[in-house]
Amino acid sequence: MSEHRLLRRQRIYIPAVSINRATLKHSWIRVLVATLDEPEQICGVARRIGYTGKQEDALALYRLKIKQGHGHPTVTLPGIYIIDDGLFQDYEEWKQKQG
Asked: Which domain of life does this protein belong to (predicted)?
């Protein structure tokens, strides 16, 4: 698959269950992942790897492992993600927007 085609297929990932924000007080160690355009189709799993701090409202940090399709291996997406506004968002990009 060409790099150009991969860039066009950039997907927005969401938790497969309704989660608006994952924090130290309210988070899950493992969350099933879907895409915004196909919310009923599970395409991977997010695993919690830590938190952004020690406060109750500190965000949970996740690594996303996504199945690219039938017969294709699962890949771990680069970067670390948080769940905010019901979406998986790249933590570094989210942090830059906050500050």
From this structure: Bacteria
